[in-house]
Amino acid sequence: MHKYTIKLSIIILMLSGCTSVPPKITPITEQNIQTSKGDFEELWNAWIKPQINWSEPGVGSGVAVSTQKEVNSTEQSIMDGFHRFCSSMNGITASTEQKFGYKSICTTATGDYLGAVSTSRYLAYNSHSRFAGIVISFDSKSIAEKRQEEKSALAAIEDEKQYRLLSAPILPTAMLSQLIEKFKNNDPDNLIPKAKERLAALISEQKKQMAEQEAQQTRQAAAAASLKLWHQEHRHIGDQICNVAGGTYDEYTGIVSYGKGEYRKIEGINRIVGFVENISGKRIQIRISGINFTGLALYGRKVDVNIDELHNFNGGSSLKINNIIWDDIYNWNDC
Protein backbone atom coordinates (compact mmCIF):
# COMPACT_ATOMS: atom_id res chain seq x y z
CA MET A 1 0.00 0.00 0.00
CA HIS A 2 2.86 2.39 0.86
CA LYS A 3 4.51 1.57 -2.45
CA TYR A 4 1.42 2.61 -4.38
CA THR A 5 1.00 5.74 -2.24
CA ILE A 6 4.55 6.78 -3.08
CA LYS A 7 3.93 6.17 -6.77
CA LEU A 8 0.73 8.18 -6.66
CA SER A 9 2.58 11.03 -4.97
CA ILE A 10 5.21 10.95 -7.69
CA ILE A 11 2.52 11.14 -10.35
CA ILE A 12 0.78 14.03 -8.53
CA LEU A 13 4.08 15.93 -8.38
CA MET A 14 4.67 15.26 -12.06
CA LEU A 15 1.24 16.59 -12.89
CA SER A 16 1.30 19.69 -10.70
CA GLY A 17 1.12 22.82 -12.77
CA CYS A 18 -0.39 20.93 -15.68
CA THR A 19 -3.00 23.04 -17.43
CA SER A 20 -4.11 22.28 -20.94
CA VAL A 21 -1.35 19.89 -22.12
CA PRO A 22 -1.81 16.23 -21.08
CA PRO A 23 1.19 14.55 -19.41
CA LYS A 24 3.36 12.54 -21.79
CA ILE A 25 2.66 8.80 -21.65
CA THR A 26 5.39 6.51 -22.91
CA PRO A 27 3.85 4.78 -25.94
CA ILE A 28 3.71 1.00 -26.01
CA THR A 29 5.97 -0.40 -28.71
CA GLU A 30 6.77 -3.84 -30.02
CA GLN A 31 9.89 -3.89 -27.83
CA ASN A 32 8.12 -3.18 -24.54
CA ILE A 33 4.71 -4.66 -25.29
CA GLN A 34 5.10 -7.25 -22.50
CA THR A 35 6.23 -4.83 -19.73
CA SER A 36 5.54 -1.16 -20.45
CA LYS A 37 8.04 1.39 -19.14
CA GLY A 38 7.80 4.98 -17.95
CA ASP A 39 4.96 6.98 -16.45
CA PHE A 40 2.31 4.75 -17.92
CA GLU A 41 3.75 1.68 -16.14
CA GLU A 42 3.58 3.54 -12.84
CA LEU A 43 -0.07 4.31 -13.42
CA TRP A 44 -0.77 0.80 -14.72
CA ASN A 45 0.88 -1.16 -11.90
CA ALA A 46 -0.36 1.09 -9.10
CA TRP A 47 -3.98 1.61 -10.08
CA ILE A 48 -5.23 -0.29 -13.09
CA LYS A 49 -3.66 -3.75 -12.95
CA PRO A 50 -5.00 -4.62 -9.45
CA GLN A 51 -8.55 -3.92 -10.64
CA ILE A 52 -8.43 -6.15 -13.73
CA ASN A 53 -9.81 -9.67 -13.73
CA TRP A 54 -6.92 -11.80 -15.02
CA SER A 55 -8.85 -15.06 -14.78
CA GLU A 56 -9.35 -15.36 -18.54
CA PRO A 57 -7.35 -18.29 -20.02
CA GLY A 58 -4.11 -17.32 -21.69
CA VAL A 59 -3.94 -13.84 -20.08
CA GLY A 60 -0.85 -12.99 -18.04
CA SER A 61 1.28 -9.98 -17.26
CA GLY A 62 1.24 -8.74 -20.83
CA VAL A 63 -1.34 -8.18 -23.52
CA ALA A 64 0.09 -10.28 -26.35
CA VAL A 65 -2.07 -13.40 -26.15
CA SER A 66 -2.70 -16.21 -28.57
CA THR A 67 -6.30 -15.89 -29.70
CA GLN A 68 -8.67 -13.10 -30.62
CA LYS A 69 -11.29 -14.40 -28.13
CA GLU A 70 -8.82 -14.07 -25.26
CA VAL A 71 -7.83 -10.55 -26.32
CA ASN A 72 -11.46 -9.48 -26.55
CA SER A 73 -12.02 -10.63 -22.94
CA THR A 74 -8.83 -8.92 -21.76
CA GLU A 75 -9.67 -5.69 -23.56
CA GLN A 76 -13.09 -5.54 -21.88
CA SER A 77 -11.49 -6.16 -18.48
CA ILE A 78 -8.93 -3.41 -19.12
CA MET A 79 -11.67 -0.99 -20.16
CA ASP A 80 -13.57 -1.78 -16.94
CA GLY A 81 -10.44 -1.14 -14.89
CA PHE A 82 -9.81 2.22 -16.57
CA HIS A 83 -13.43 3.18 -16.03
CA ARG A 84 -13.25 2.46 -12.28
CA PHE A 85 -9.94 4.29 -11.93
CA CYS A 86 -11.00 7.36 -13.87
CA SER A 87 -14.34 7.53 -12.06
CA SER A 88 -12.48 7.66 -8.73
CA MET A 89 -10.76 10.89 -9.79
CA ASN A 90 -13.89 12.83 -8.91
CA GLY A 91 -13.38 11.98 -5.23
CA ILE A 92 -9.78 13.23 -4.95
CA THR A 93 -9.21 16.63 -3.44
CA ALA A 94 -6.84 18.48 -5.74
CA SER A 95 -6.61 21.64 -7.75
CA THR A 96 -8.48 22.00 -11.03
CA GLU A 97 -5.21 21.63 -12.91
CA GLN A 98 -4.39 18.41 -11.06
CA LYS A 99 -7.85 17.00 -11.75
CA PHE A 100 -7.42 17.92 -15.38
CA GLY A 101 -4.06 16.20 -15.36
CA TYR A 102 -5.53 13.00 -14.00
CA LYS A 103 -8.32 13.09 -16.54
CA SER A 104 -5.72 13.62 -19.23
CA ILE A 105 -3.93 10.51 -18.02
CA CYS A 106 -7.20 8.61 -18.24
CA THR A 107 -7.87 9.85 -21.76
CA THR A 108 -4.35 9.45 -23.14
CA ALA A 109 -3.48 6.22 -21.38
CA THR A 110 -6.75 4.61 -22.34
CA GLY A 111 -6.23 5.48 -25.99
CA ASP A 112 -2.60 4.31 -26.03
CA TYR A 113 -3.15 1.13 -24.11
CA LEU A 114 -6.32 0.00 -25.81
CA GLY A 115 -4.73 0.81 -29.14
CA ALA A 116 -1.88 -1.50 -28.18
CA VAL A 117 -4.35 -4.19 -27.12
CA SER A 118 -6.11 -3.84 -30.46
CA THR A 119 -2.91 -4.17 -32.45
CA SER A 120 -1.71 -7.02 -30.24
CA ARG A 121 -4.61 -9.04 -31.60
CA TYR A 122 -2.53 -9.79 -34.65
CA LEU A 123 0.94 -9.94 -33.11
CA ALA A 124 0.65 -13.70 -33.56
CA TYR A 125 -0.14 -13.12 -37.24
CA ASN A 126 3.24 -11.58 -38.13
CA SER A 127 4.19 -14.70 -40.06
CA HIS A 128 1.42 -13.92 -42.52
CA SER A 129 2.51 -10.34 -43.22
CA ARG A 130 4.78 -11.47 -46.06
CA PHE A 131 1.80 -12.62 -48.06
CA ALA A 132 -0.06 -9.31 -47.93
CA GLY A 133 3.00 -7.07 -47.83
CA ILE A 134 1.93 -5.67 -44.45
CA VAL A 135 4.41 -4.22 -41.96
CA ILE A 136 2.84 -4.03 -38.50
CA SER A 137 3.74 -0.76 -36.79
CA PHE A 138 3.29 0.29 -33.16
CA ASP A 139 3.45 4.04 -33.50
CA SER A 140 1.11 6.78 -32.33
CA LYS A 141 -1.65 5.93 -34.78
CA SER A 142 -5.23 6.36 -33.70
CA ILE A 143 -7.29 3.41 -32.50
CA ALA A 144 -9.36 3.63 -35.68
CA GLU A 145 -6.23 3.33 -37.81
CA LYS A 146 -4.94 0.42 -35.77
CA ARG A 147 -8.27 -1.36 -35.98
CA GLN A 148 -8.24 -0.87 -39.74
CA GLU A 149 -4.76 -2.42 -39.84
CA GLU A 150 -6.14 -5.28 -37.79
CA LYS A 151 -8.95 -5.85 -40.30
CA SER A 152 -6.43 -5.78 -43.13
CA ALA A 153 -4.24 -8.32 -41.34
CA LEU A 154 -7.17 -10.65 -40.71
CA ALA A 155 -8.25 -10.30 -44.35
CA ALA A 156 -4.70 -11.17 -45.39
CA ILE A 157 -4.86 -14.32 -43.26
CA GLU A 158 -8.09 -15.36 -44.94
CA ASP A 159 -6.55 -14.68 -48.36
CA GLU A 160 -3.56 -16.85 -47.52
CA LYS A 161 -5.83 -19.67 -46.37
CA GLN A 162 -7.57 -19.50 -49.73
CA TYR A 163 -4.21 -19.28 -51.51
CA ARG A 164 -3.05 -22.50 -49.81
CA LEU A 165 -6.12 -24.27 -51.18
CA LEU A 166 -4.49 -24.08 -54.62
CA SER A 167 -2.39 -27.08 -53.57
CA ALA A 168 -5.28 -29.03 -52.00
CA PRO A 169 -5.54 -32.53 -53.54
CA ILE A 170 -9.34 -32.45 -53.80
CA LEU A 171 -11.15 -29.27 -54.80
CA PRO A 172 -14.28 -28.59 -56.89
CA THR A 173 -13.51 -27.45 -60.41
CA ALA A 174 -15.41 -24.17 -60.06
CA MET A 175 -13.62 -23.23 -56.82
CA LEU A 176 -10.19 -24.10 -58.22
CA SER A 177 -10.89 -21.98 -61.30
CA GLN A 178 -11.94 -19.01 -59.11
CA LEU A 179 -8.81 -19.31 -56.94
CA ILE A 180 -6.55 -19.42 -59.99
CA GLU A 181 -8.18 -16.26 -61.33
CA LYS A 182 -7.97 -14.52 -57.94
CA PHE A 183 -4.27 -15.22 -57.30
CA LYS A 184 -2.90 -15.21 -60.86
CA ASN A 185 -1.03 -11.95 -60.13
CA ASN A 186 -0.18 -12.77 -56.49
CA ASP A 187 1.53 -16.16 -56.50
CA PRO A 188 4.55 -15.93 -54.13
CA ASP A 189 5.01 -19.72 -53.89
CA ASN A 190 4.37 -20.44 -57.59
CA LEU A 191 1.29 -22.60 -56.95
CA ILE A 192 -0.65 -21.43 -60.02
CA PRO A 193 1.10 -23.54 -62.72
CA LYS A 194 0.40 -26.87 -61.00
CA ALA A 195 -3.11 -25.70 -60.10
CA LYS A 196 -3.76 -25.00 -63.79
CA GLU A 197 -2.58 -28.51 -64.68
CA ARG A 198 -4.95 -30.02 -62.11
CA LEU A 199 -7.79 -27.84 -63.39
CA ALA A 200 -7.22 -29.00 -66.97
CA ALA A 201 -7.21 -32.64 -65.81
CA LEU A 202 -10.44 -32.10 -63.85
CA ILE A 203 -12.18 -30.49 -66.82
CA SER A 204 -11.04 -33.32 -69.10
CA GLU A 205 -12.35 -35.93 -66.66
CA GLN A 206 -15.67 -34.11 -66.32
CA LYS A 207 -16.10 -33.97 -70.10
CA LYS A 208 -15.38 -37.69 -70.30
CA GLN A 209 -17.96 -38.45 -67.60
CA MET A 210 -20.56 -36.25 -69.30
CA ALA A 211 -19.98 -38.01 -72.62
CA GLU A 212 -20.41 -41.40 -70.94
CA GLN A 213 -23.62 -40.25 -69.24
CA GLU A 214 -25.05 -38.93 -72.51
CA ALA A 215 -24.18 -42.19 -74.27
CA GLN A 216 -25.84 -44.18 -71.49
CA GLN A 217 -28.98 -42.02 -71.63
CA THR A 218 -29.11 -42.50 -75.41
CA ARG A 219 -28.83 -46.27 -75.00
CA GLN A 220 -31.55 -46.29 -72.33
CA ALA A 221 -33.88 -44.17 -74.48
CA ALA A 222 -33.32 -46.45 -77.47
CA ALA A 223 -34.00 -49.54 -75.35
CA ALA A 224 -37.20 -48.01 -73.96
CA ALA A 225 -38.39 -47.06 -77.46
CA SER A 226 -37.61 -50.55 -78.72
CA LEU A 227 -39.53 -52.15 -75.84
CA LYS A 228 -42.47 -49.83 -76.39
CA LEU A 229 -42.52 -50.68 -80.10
CA TRP A 230 -42.39 -54.40 -79.35
CA HIS A 231 -45.40 -54.11 -77.02
CA GLN A 232 -47.33 -52.09 -79.58
CA GLU A 233 -46.71 -54.66 -82.28
CA HIS A 234 -47.53 -57.65 -80.08
CA ARG A 235 -51.00 -56.83 -78.78
CA HIS A 236 -53.45 -59.49 -77.72
CA ILE A 237 -57.21 -59.51 -77.52
CA GLY A 238 -58.26 -58.25 -74.11
CA ASP A 239 -55.13 -56.14 -73.45
CA GLN A 240 -55.81 -52.89 -71.60
CA ILE A 241 -54.28 -49.95 -73.44
CA CYS A 242 -54.18 -46.18 -73.00
CA ASN A 243 -53.93 -43.03 -75.07
CA VAL A 244 -52.65 -39.89 -73.32
CA ALA A 245 -52.66 -36.46 -74.97
CA GLY A 246 -53.15 -32.79 -74.20
CA GLY A 247 -56.67 -31.42 -74.19
CA THR A 248 -59.14 -28.99 -72.65
CA TYR A 249 -62.14 -29.27 -70.38
CA ASP A 250 -65.08 -26.85 -70.14
CA GLU A 251 -65.91 -26.45 -66.45
CA TYR A 252 -69.30 -25.05 -65.46
CA THR A 253 -68.92 -21.87 -63.41
CA GLY A 254 -72.36 -22.02 -61.79
CA ILE A 255 -73.28 -18.70 -63.40
CA VAL A 256 -76.25 -18.34 -65.73
CA SER A 257 -76.28 -15.41 -68.12
CA TYR A 258 -79.23 -14.69 -70.45
CA GLY A 259 -80.58 -18.12 -69.73
CA LYS A 260 -77.32 -19.93 -70.57
CA GLY A 261 -74.72 -21.41 -68.26
CA GLU A 262 -71.20 -20.00 -68.39
CA TYR A 263 -68.13 -22.25 -68.64
CA ARG A 264 -64.42 -21.73 -68.17
CA LYS A 265 -61.91 -23.58 -70.34
CA ILE A 266 -59.17 -25.47 -68.49
CA GLU A 267 -56.12 -26.92 -70.20
CA GLY A 268 -54.77 -30.29 -69.12
CA ILE A 269 -54.33 -33.95 -70.04
CA ASN A 270 -56.87 -36.42 -71.43
CA ARG A 271 -56.30 -40.06 -70.55
CA ILE A 272 -58.38 -42.57 -72.53
CA VAL A 273 -58.56 -46.20 -71.40
CA GLY A 274 -59.73 -49.04 -73.64
CA PHE A 275 -59.49 -52.78 -74.29
CA VAL A 276 -58.32 -54.52 -77.47
CA GLU A 277 -61.28 -56.13 -79.26
CA ASN A 278 -59.62 -57.12 -82.54
CA ILE A 279 -56.30 -56.85 -84.41
CA SER A 280 -55.75 -56.39 -88.14
CA GLY A 281 -52.16 -55.81 -89.21
CA LYS A 282 -51.04 -52.45 -87.80
CA ARG A 283 -54.54 -51.49 -86.69
CA ILE A 284 -56.51 -52.50 -83.64
CA GLN A 285 -60.14 -52.35 -82.63
CA ILE A 286 -60.67 -50.74 -79.22
CA ARG A 287 -63.64 -50.54 -76.86
CA ILE A 288 -63.49 -47.26 -74.85
CA SER A 289 -63.90 -47.97 -71.12
CA GLY A 290 -63.01 -44.64 -69.51
CA ILE A 291 -62.07 -41.02 -70.16
CA ASN A 292 -60.34 -38.93 -67.51
CA PHE A 293 -59.21 -35.29 -67.54
CA THR A 294 -56.69 -33.69 -65.16
CA GLY A 295 -55.58 -30.06 -65.16
CA LEU A 296 -55.00 -26.93 -63.10
CA ALA A 297 -57.58 -24.16 -62.81
CA LEU A 298 -57.08 -20.65 -61.44
CA TYR A 299 -54.94 -20.25 -58.30
CA GLY A 300 -53.53 -23.76 -58.71
CA ARG A 301 -56.80 -25.58 -58.05
CA LYS A 302 -56.52 -29.15 -59.31
CA VAL A 303 -59.23 -30.49 -61.62
CA ASP A 304 -59.61 -34.27 -61.89
CA VAL A 305 -62.85 -35.47 -63.51
CA ASN A 306 -64.17 -38.51 -65.36
CA ILE A 307 -66.10 -37.50 -68.47
CA ASP A 308 -68.56 -39.36 -70.66
CA GLU A 309 -67.62 -37.82 -73.99
CA LEU A 310 -64.48 -36.41 -75.57
CA HIS A 311 -64.67 -34.18 -78.64
CA ASN A 312 -62.02 -33.69 -81.33
CA PHE A 313 -60.16 -36.92 -80.65
CA ASN A 314 -57.35 -37.31 -83.21
CA GLY A 315 -58.41 -34.11 -84.96
CA GLY A 316 -62.18 -34.57 -85.21
CA SER A 317 -63.64 -37.77 -83.81
CA SER A 318 -65.82 -37.85 -80.73
CA LEU A 319 -65.39 -40.57 -78.13
CA LYS A 320 -67.96 -41.88 -75.69
CA ILE A 321 -67.81 -44.62 -73.10
CA ASN A 322 -68.34 -48.08 -74.72
CA ASN A 323 -67.66 -46.71 -78.23
CA ILE A 324 -65.75 -49.11 -80.46
CA ILE A 325 -63.12 -47.53 -82.71
CA TRP A 326 -60.32 -48.60 -85.03
CA ASP A 327 -56.95 -46.90 -84.63
CA ASP A 328 -53.25 -47.25 -85.41
CA ILE A 329 -51.44 -49.59 -83.00
CA TYR A 330 -48.71 -46.99 -82.45
CA ASN A 331 -51.16 -44.45 -80.98
CA TRP A 332 -51.79 -46.66 -77.93
CA ASN A 333 -49.45 -47.76 -75.15
CA ASP A 334 -49.54 -49.87 -72.04
CA CYS A 335 -51.43 -48.20 -69.20
Based on the model shown, name its key terms.
six-stranded antiparallel beta sheet, alpha+beta, 2 domains, two-stranded antiparallel ribbon, 335 residues, disordered N terminus, elongated, single chain
Structure notes:
With 335 residues, the protein is of the alpha+beta class. It has two domains: 2-157, no CATH class; 234-334, no CATH class. The chain has eight helices and eight strands, in the order ααααααααββββββββ. The chain has helices spanning 2-15, 39-48, 68-88, 96-120, 129-132, 143-164, 173-182, 192-233; strands at 240-257, 260-280, 283-296, 302-306, 309-313, 317-320, 324-328, 333-334. The strands form two sheets. Strands 1, 2, 3, 4, 7 and 8 form a six-stranded antiparallel β-sheet that branches. Strands 5-6 form a two-stranded antiparallel ribbon. β5 (309-313) and β6 form a beta hairpin. α1 (2-15) crosses α2, α4 (96-120) runs parallel beside α6 (143-164) and α7 (173-182) runs antiparallel to α8. It is elongated and about 90 Å long. The model is unreliable at 1-40, 51-72, 89-105 and 112-140 (pLDDT under 50).
**How many discrete structural domains?**
2
Order of helices and strands: HHHHHHHHEEEEEEEE
Low-pLDDT runs of 5+ residues are 1-40, 51-72, 89-105, 112-140
- Give the helix level as a range of percent: 40-55%
- Number of alpha- plus pi-helical segments: 8
Radius of gyration: 43 Å
Largest sheet: 6 strands, antiparallel
Apparent shape: elongated
End-to-end Cα distance, whole Å, is 99 Å
Number of strands: 8
What is the typical, i.e. mean, pLDDT?
70
Q: Could you say which structural class the secondary elements and strand pairing correspond to?
A: alpha+beta
Range of strand content = 15-25%
Protein name: Lipoprotein
Coiled coil: 196-228
Keywords: Coiled coil
Organism: Sulfuriferula nivalis
